[in-house]
Amino acid sequence: MTATAEKTAVAPPAARVQRSGRYLRVWTWVVLAWLFVPVAGMIVFGFNDTRGKFNNTWQGFTLHWYRDVFAIPDLTISLLNSLTIALLTAIFAGALGTLIGLALARYRFRGAGILDTVMFAAIAAPEVVMGASLLSMFLNLDIPRGYLTILISHIMFSLSFVAITVRARAATLDPSLEEAARDLGAGPWETFRLVTLPMILPGIMSGALLAFALSIDDFIITSFNAGSTETFPLWIWGATRVGLPPQVNVMGTLIFVFGVVLAIGGALFSRRRAG
Prior knowledge:
globular
């Protein structure tokens, strides 16, 4: 009786709880608006019938820029560079990061602690430090800067993100499942292909998609190591002095829609596996 009375005395009034919930919902919508208003502006001005160099004043609706989205050759080439570099980064960083993540999660070996520290240090290091160190390495090795050095740079800074993501997933696996597969006659490769790989696949996909996203919008590290090769962010930065064409808004919209579709597909896939 005394405990119940004390609990009733310290419990917050229902009106205060309801008011806090209302404030939380309002704050959530404010944060969402803060995040999506710039994206909405980019999408809207992709339909702007502008006739000048600067696409920042609404002049009417048109689908002209979607029809001529690839009308500027340099912009198209820079977008293709960004997409292919991001795709290759996701593939190579995904493969190498998966092997490192599995090794850190499943095995004890000399140097594992140092490797683990290096992974976190690479994530925590400022991009300007990473970019300058990679530039110094390429200059010392006399490697001409261009597409290849951008790709190598992106793989190096994305590798840690994939490795840590896969390691977190692999650390939660039940080793008895692999032991059961081996007891049933499966070899090391079959055990990995049929048991281990399907279980760590969500971690691999998450790491690879993270590497793709980090690569396609990277500016600082790319600017250090690009040479004369232009990526989509570098082209936009260079064009800001003379005005951005509406095709930039269209390409940004298409990339955003692709990311949303990919995120929804991943969520549906995870829900289906969980169900």
